[in-house]
Amino acid sequence: MSGQFLPTEFIEKYNRLMGHEAESFFTSLKEDRTYGVRKNDLKIDEKEFLTRWEQEFGVTPEPIPWVPGGYYYDGNTVSPGRSPMYMEGLYYIQDPSAMLPGAVAAPKPGMRVLDLCSAPGGKAIQMAAYMQGQGTLYCNDISATRIKALIRNLEQFGVRNAIVLNEDPTKLVDRFRDYFDVIVADVPCSGEGMFRKDKNSIAEWDGHGADRLAPIQYSILCSAAQMIRGGGTIIYSTCTYAPEEDELIIEKFLREYPDFYLEKIPCGHGQAPGRTDWTEFGTDMSGSVRMWPHLLKGEGHYTAKLVRKGDDYREPVKANIKVDKDVLQAFTKFAKETLSISFDNHCLYTVGNGLYAMTEKPANLDRLKVCKFGWYLGCLDHGKFVPSQSLACALKVEELAPNRVISLTSDSPDAHSYLKCETPSFDTDVKGYLAVAIDGIPVGWVKSSGSVIKNMYPSGWRMC
User: Fold this and answer.
1) I want to staple 39 with a disulfide (CB 3.0 to 4.6 A). Which of 49, 60, 107, 264 is the partner?
2) Contact 375, 348 (CB under 8 A)
């Protein structure tokens, strides 16, 4: 029988649930996984992306039909994580099925958005591209270790309007009740949909069962329900096939929260509707979407779109923003020399010696674990402003003073040397901080004394 490498209980369960379809499902789990990238609309348009991809890898990528800007690639012949394009933040490497929730959320510029289980940040980056730097994107994750990857990704991909929190979702409710326009809850799950992608998930399946996880998932969804405004949308998603974590969670939620309804997500391209026959009370689940590896080119995933009725909205207490005058003075001097854009001082604030910028005054974050307060611009060090990697990656080359840009091409030895944190070989008479741009995309800083140049690229970001 196909699927004999899988846990016996898993085989028995899906034989029972899927009937004659189970055989093709089990067979698909023995096949190669799928690979995908999603271009970063904050930094590159489609035409330029395709041109550069073809130059870099010698092939034209195949579009993923359910998400704009998503493309398949052959993981056996292409290594996109080792390309300067990736280091420039031009695309995010992500499972094709995992791109659906962000595409369904599709927040508009100016909205207030919460990615409730955000790390490592794929969906957050995707939603930030929809928002185009307008509004506020709150990214939360309960795992302190995973937060580091989240922050790095937000910075590398040029997200300016994100606040990163490290809290249990229940602790956010009182602060953000009836506040957000869009919430994405990609909840921790048993990971059945990742069996092809991560063989370890098969071995761990018994210890991460649906029965143990369902109460956690439901608690997260209930927290989201209290933070979404009237007329707002919650996107609930998992990477598992288990009805206990998918349709049964949504059914229970709709019965206990009658002010919400399930809005239909159009199916296509091999996607399947949610299974009403797998619910306890026969609640119509056809508006949600299941993604099966035997029906499409992608891994297992489930997505549901929940809309709150009415128009209730509560404006929370705003943060008491203060700006240290010494930090602001040093930044103003740096910006005058280095940048061609100006900042609204009302949206600048300091945390310690660090300077941050936001598009709007954020909610009061007192007594919450905040790991990133917005667009981190840099810090004051011995009376001088030191620009951040986050600042460089979110700038466009035209936002820099022309004499403060070192322009390289991605195929040049200097570009590869810089991304490997080696001592730069290029010369400049300009003193101070200069941005390094590869193919017109700023990627970091160097510091010049006029005769010696110091590479400021973060060692933790070093290209292999």
Assistant:
1) 49
2) no
Could you tell me the two tokens for 188? Answer: 């921790």
Strand 162-165 and strand 180-186: the pairing is unpaired
Mean pLDDT of 159-176: 96
The ranges assigned to domains in the chain are 1-31, 94-308, 319-366+373-392, 395-464
What mean pLDDT value characterizes the chain?
A: 94
User: In the CATH scheme, what is the code of domain 94-308?
Assistant: 3.40.50.150
The answer to whether the beta carbons of residues 128 and 38 sit under 8 Å apart is: no
CATH-assigned architecture of domain 395-464: Roll (2.30)
The pTM for the full model equals 0.95
| Residue in 239, 347, 371, 421 annotated catalytic | 239
Q: What percent of the chain has pLDDT over 90?
A: 86
Residue in the structure block whose two tokens are 């995309």: 441
Does residue 421 carry a catalytic annotation? Answer: no
| Enclosing H/E stretch for 170 | helix 169-176
For tokens 């249990």, name the residue: 168
Candidates 294, 298, 246, 250; CA nearest to 66 is: 298
Residue 215 DSSP SS3: helix
Question: What's the residue count for the chain?
Answer: 464
- The whole-number average pLDDT for the span 110-116 is 97
Nearest to 125 by CA among 85, 97, 98: 98
pLDDT by residue (tens digit) across 252-311? 999 999 999 999 999 999 999 999 999 999 999 999 999 999 999 999 999 999 999 998
